[in-house]
Amino acid sequence: MKIKNSDNTISMLDPSLLLRPEKIYDGKPLEAFRDYSMDDEDPIKERVRRTYYDMHTNMTVDFVKGKMDKWLQFDHFKSTVKDALIKLNELVDESDPDTDLPNIVHAFQTAERIRQDYPNDDWFQLIGLIHDLGKVMAFYGEPQWCVVGDTFPVGCKWGKNIVYGDDSFKANPDSYNEKYNTTYGMYKKNCGIENLMMSWGHDEYLYRVLKHNNAKFPEEGLWMIRYHSFYPWHAGGDYKQFLTEKDEKIKEAVLKFNQYDLYTKSAAIPDIESLWPYYEKLIEKYIPGELEW
C-alpha cells in the first residue's frame, strides 16, 4: 500500500526491512522484526501480507519483461545522485510503525555505519547511501509491490523460502505454465544467478541505472545493490540448482552489506547537512553528473 500524506510525502511499507522469517536472523537485536504469521488484527502484518500476495499474483515473466521495456529506456527523468537522494525525503518508509523517518535518513544511517567499520572503503560507504535509490519509481506511478519487498527469480519453480509460500502464487498464471513451473524452468543447471530474470523492484532498477550511467563501483558493490533483497537465496538457501562458484562471492558481498541495511533502524539520526560535503565528493568520484533514469 502506498499512501499520499497531507504534506505530499509518499508512505511505503518495505517488508524486506521489517519482517524477516529466516532462521539466520533469529535473536538479532532488531525489535521491529516480526514473523510472517497471519494476523488480521495486526495492521502491519496485514499490509505486508497484502503487498506480497499482490506481488506474487502479478510478478510473471511477461510482467517483468514489460517493466524492463518501460524502465530500461532510461527516459523518465534526469537527475544527479544528490537530487535523487533529496527526492527520497518525500518517501516515508512505513517499515517502522513508531517513526516517520524519510528514506534519506536510513540511507545516511547505513552509510555512516559502514563508514565506521570500513573507513578506507569509500565506495562501500556510497553503496550504503544510494542502495534504495531505485525506490524513485514510486513517484512515477508504480505500485508498492513492484518497488519494495523481497525479490526472487521468475521463469522457474517458486523457491520454498519465498515468504507466504505457494499459497500466495495461486493466482499467478506462471504457476501453471509448464515452461516456467519446473525446477529449472527457462534456465539451465548452474547458469549462475546473474543469468536469472529477477522479479522487478528497486534493486534491479538501480543496478541497471548504475550500469547504464557507467558508475565506477567495483563489481562487489553492484552485486550488493542488485541482490540485497534476494532473501530466498542468500538467507533461505533456495535456488541451489543455478549456483556457480562465483555466486558464493556474490553472496559474501551481499551478506556483508545486509548487516548494515537491516540493523541501522534504531541508530541515531545523523546530521545530514554536515555530511553532504563528504558524500558529494564520493558521488563525484564514482557516479558524477546528471544521470539518466
Descriptors:
293 residues, mainly alpha, two-stranded antiparallel sheet, 5 strands, 41% helix, globular, iron, EC 1.13.99.1, Inositol oxygenase, inositol oxygenase activity, oxidoreductase
Q: How would you describe what is shown here?
A:
- It is found in: Cytoplasm.
- One of its GO terms (molecular function) is inositol oxygenase activity.
- This is Inositol oxygenase.
- This protein is mainly alpha-helical and 293 residues long.
- It contains 11 helices and 5 strands.
- It has a 3-stranded mixed beta sheet, with no helix packed on it.
- A hairpin with a 5-residue loop joins strand 1 and strand 2 (10-12).
- The protein is globular.
- The two termini are 24 Å apart.
- The model is unreliable at 1-6, 25-35 and 93-99 (pLDDT under 50).
Please give the number of β-strands. Answer: 5
Helical region count? 11
Low-confidence stretches: 1-6, 25-35, 93-99
User: How would you classify the helix and strand content by structural class?
Assistant: mainly alpha
Main sheet overview: 3 strands, mixed
| End-to-end C-alpha gap | 24 Å
Tell me the fraction of residues in β-strands, as a range: under 5%
Helix content: 40-55%
- The strand order across the widest sheet is 1-2-4
Kindly state the mean pLDDT as a whole number?
86
**Global morphology:** globular
Order of helical and strand elements? EEHHHEHEHHHHHHHE
Radius of gyration: 18 Å
Catalytic activity: myo-inositol + O2 = D-glucuronate + H2O + H(+)
Protein name: Inositol oxygenase
GO molecular function: inositol oxygenase activity; iron ion binding
Subcellular location: Cytoplasm
